[in-house]
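Model it.
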Amino acid sequence: MKWGVSVYAGLGMKNIEQYLKKAKKYGANKVFSSLHIPEASLDLLEDFLQILETCSHENLPIYVDISPLYFHLIPFNRYPNLAIRLDFGFMDEEILELSRKYPLVLNASTLTRFQLNRLTTMGVDFSRISACHNYYPRPETGLSIPYFQETTKLCKEYSLSVDSFISGTAWKRPPLQEGLPTLEKHRVLSPLLSAQESYALGVDCVLFGDQATEGELEYMSMLQDDCWVLPVEWNNNDFIEIQNTLHQNRVDSGEGLLRSMFRQSSDSFNIVPHNCIKRMKGSITVDNYLYKRYQGEVQITLKDFKDDPRVNVLGKVCDEGVLLKYIQPLDKWKFI
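Modeled.
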């Protein structure tokens, strides 16, 4: 899965070069920056040029929010890995002209069908253009899921790839320092959950708006196109095979359950009843020997079920109600 990081000049962000190298090591393949921040210091441009040098050396594509004020100060010919994100201040005629010279990124959060149709009529080559949603520093201003899906789908109709932002926790950008997500609900969610939900909602690449911890970068490196990664709290370690295997949902899982096609082997022993408690939503269970030929079946509950002496509760998926609803028949998942 494609993902990336954000870095900012003139805001006191520390160790930017080392951060970019670490992100590249864990598989980041894109960088975002901005020259559109009123709070940035006067050495903004000098710092930004150093960021460009690092990205060039690490072979990391970078795109930058830029205003007409700074546009003519950037030596674009030196950085073929640099794209321009046009936030505001550019007319459609300017977008057409710029698209003939540079790769462009449009604002997915504000694009309209009218504007996209007009750009098409004007002859804009959309093969040189992609889209990226805004991030929202002020709490309560992030996008809703319905609007996010609507605008993302609109961009896809014009063959635009779409990026969006999630919050990191190592360093939150001034002046508010309250996260830089696209979706408001992601402001306080873990990046592991936020990223996977963003992909499920249709985006192609997820970017940390804030600086991420090394652990968060490592989690992103675990994500795969064809496998959900589910964080879990286990009750015990009696079933290591269940914890470590790659699971796949049955095509006919039934109402209220994910039923793994994997079955815990019980040829040499019986799975005895243990922790047969009420199965709350997100519970990971295995059927014990009292369930006869179903012994060893592994499930995740999508709603609450009463306790059953035939069903052992092994742990709980800690997804805060975010991920399980997106898992479809034949989807794969692994536990961490």
